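Hey, can you fold this one?
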Amino acid sequence: METIIGRLTEIKKLTSAVNSHRAEFIALYGRRRVGKTFLINQMFRNQFAFKMTGVIEGSLKDQFTAFTDAMSDYGYDMPEKPDDWMKAFILLKNALKPKVNSGERCVIFIDELPAMDAENSNVAGAVGYFWNNWASQYDNIVFIICGSATSWMITNVIDSKGGLHDRITIEMPIHPFTLNETELYLKDKQFVWNRKMTLQAYMVFGGIPYYLSLLDREESLVQNVDRLFFSQDMQMRREFRRLFNTLYKNPDRYIDIIKALGKSRSGLTREEIAGALKGANNGHLGRQLEDLVCCDLIRKNIVREKKIKRKDAIYQLCDFFSIFYLTFIDKAEVEQQYWAHHINTPEVNAWMGLAYERICMAHIGQIKHSLRIDAISTLTYSWRSKTTTPAAQIDIIIERADKIVNICEVKYSQDEYHLDKEEYEKICKRKNNFLQETGLRHAPWLTMITTEGIAKGKYTEMIQSQVRLDDLFN
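Sure. Predicted structure:
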């Protein structure tokens, strides 16, 4: 049996659910390939009373065929073949009754539930009926539903206004691996890579377990990238469209948003996104943005002016695979072994700098731990100047309850970073503009987040605190 890497919080919740003395209704959701199904299969191997998987992009007939096949696999008689989900779940209820009445713990797992809603067949209503009118009455039932179409899961299950309203006992979003979990995964697969190589792999693949599983430990990272993205097979080239087709029924608008954000290093406000798409800044766009946030594809950064402003948040693309794809793949055809030929070029170095900034933003908890401010109440936000041209921006600002504000500057480099006079003055200018425009009276601490630390020099002592790459692996 394969080892579950990380997921400590999720394992604790699932173990607690199995050992509880009540009916449990668990909803997992998260982007494609993030490891939802693997987690449940490994936790409950050979314990399922029933398990089925919806057919991605399948017809309603395909879904009922999958249901019938699953019933057969578990040895349940089917007096009739269902032609709607109410009948199907009533058949499932009747099949499960003997096991449930015997008192044994029954784990029921419905994977890719959103796919089962083919042709708007109201599978959510049938699931609600199954739970409310039967399953919820038995303290030995663990009912698990799962879906990659996160927006469907949230609309129809988590925030349901119908039969599933407030019925979920455990809500469990599954997020990509952290750097630490990625390192553990690669070590478990016997990769002999240092942290810089692991970081660069994260820049390309993010913390997506399936993508990491495609790596070959007998190849260098450069060779792996060329094989997966630039060879004749180019396995990962087709993944971008598949990702969005899986997540959304109408993926094109979501892809347009991703591409608009992919063109902006600093990110865009909602109004700017609407302008880039030549569309209206309305509730429909707002829901699409929230869908992308929930799938860990984009990040919503609150901003500070005189006050914290959530309405004028800055959205940034934070899915590392998508950033890599849009930077290097979504263009004219490139030659085989492109990565080997272009490593250390200005274009690749610029991408690494951006990716490292986004990685730091995804590891705020690790940064706070390194700064020893875990126990202090903090608020993390971004800032964009309203007065400078071009607009100065600071992506990571940590405002602390002890009246200190960490103004963070992220720098990626292969070796120790050399902070010269010109760069130091730029940092100080941004700091002063921030304090002047916001009126914040906290003591400003300049914080450098680098890979290998800052080389000793005239301006090193002007920096109040440092965070290094190793700290992000906490």
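The first strand starts at residue 24 and ends at 29. Let me know if you want another pass with a different chain boundary.
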